[in-house]
Design a protein that fits this description.
Length: about 240
């Protein structure tokens, strides 16, 4: 009969094997997911470029990519699940805010209000999102494969300095452009009296959403700056010490 020490050793080995198996499955899934998302946003980029080269105008561009955009942006909800179950070490709240704000922009603003789909601000945030996501998902993919090119790391931690403010500007200008149509039509609003005895005005809700960018944008932007310092400047300090 095995001793208690031997039993404990066997149990520990079993637990370690299970952890390694779970880790391998998680890495395989994350690699597949990030490759798929990189490909999806590359398709969006190529579709936008081809549309503009053929039409020489941005009008109608959103309609040409709407289905693909809605699919890949909505699938990003999976990332909140990744954080929640712990296979990605990122804040559930931060990820949730970023993903849900984009889904809101796609489904409840741009997709719902066709009159604003040809606004320059829509093209602005679409271009920013596309460049950002291609870089981000490429970074995650190569990082998981342990073959991360430096230029992708550099782009990941430097592009946001320009892209993030531009993306926010595009989103805010798009919501602002939507306000007159929302007020005129009363879309998604519920006014008293009604059987639920609830009042909701989508127009004022959008104004609150716009105001929420004031506290949220600096927090997320400075979070990325701290990550940049940690990743890029940390490496420079280590190299100097060596």
């Amino acid at each position: 009969m095995a001793s208690m020490e031997e039993d404990g050793s066997v149990e520990e080995k079993d637990n370690n094997n299970k952890k390694r198996t779970k880790s391998a499955i998680a890495v395989a899934w994350l690699t597949f997911y990030n490759i798929a998302m990189t490909a999806g946003w590359l398709v969006l980029a190529m579709t936008m470029i081809r549309f503009y080269l053929q039409k020489s105008t941005h009008k109608g561009l959103y309609k040409s990519i709407a289905r693909t955009l809605k699919f890949f942006q909505t699938v990003a909800l999976v990332e909140v699940g990744h954080c929640a179950i712990g296979i990605v070490r990122t804040s559930v709240i931060v990820t949730g805010v970023q993903v849900c704000s984009r889904i809101f922009m796609v489904w409840f603003i741009t997709n719902s209000i066709k009159q604003i789909q040809n606004e320059e601000s829509v093209i602005l945030f679409l271009v920013v999102w596309t460049l950002t996501e291609i870089t981000r998902y490429s970074f995650y993919t190569f990082n998981l494969l342990n073959h991360l090119p430096y230029f992708i790391k550099w782009a990941r931690y430097n592009m946001f300095i320009i892209m993030y403010p531009l993306g926010v500007a595009g989103e805010l200008l798009t919501i602002y452009a939507a306000l007159p149509f929302v007020r005129k039509t009363g879309m998604l609003s519920m006014r008293l009296p009604n059987k639920y005895n609830i009042s909701f005005d989508y127009y004022y809700f959008l104004i609150i959403v716009m105001l929420s960018y004031i506290p949220l944008f600096p927090q997320l932007f400075f979070h990325m700056l701290r990550q940049r310092r940690k990743v890029l400047l940390g490496e420079i300090i280590v190299e100097k010490d060596e």
